[in-house]
């Protein structure tokens, strides 16, 4: 069973980055015109870039946890994998 202390920082928050990319890609045409194509692309790049940086940090934290023998390295690797999804979505949806 996943506790709430594990769910929010390691699953919920990383999935919000993916949700942001999907919602940005699913905007109706009227909002895209109002937002502007360049601005929409910049927002998507910022979301994916920040997610990628946080994914690298999470992967590094998982490696440090594993090398020190501490519990929780699996949760950090899950976070790193979920934080890599927006980069993949950006490449697929762009």
Structure description:
- This protein is an all-alpha fold and 94 residues long.
- The chain has four helices and no strands.
- The protein has helices at residues 4-25, 29-35, 37-68, 73-93.
- The chain is elongated, with a radius of gyration of 16 Å.
- The mean pLDDT is 90.
Features:
mainly alpha, 94 residues, 87% helix
Mean pLDDT rating: 90
What is the molecular shape? elongated
Q: What is the CA-atom radius of gyration, in angstroms?
A: 16 Å
Helical fraction equals over 70%
* Uncertain segments: none
Ends distance: 37 Å
Q: What's the story with the biggest beta sheet? A: none
Order of helices and strands: HHHH
User: What would you call the structural class?
Assistant: mainly alpha
Count of helical regions: 4
Number of strands: 0
Query: How much strand content do the residues show?
Result: under 5%
Secondary-structure blueprint:
Layout: H1 4-25, H2 29-35, H3 37-68, H4 73-93
Produce a short descriptive summary.
By secondary structure, the chain is an all-alpha fold. It is 87% helix and 0% strand. It is built from four helices and no strands.
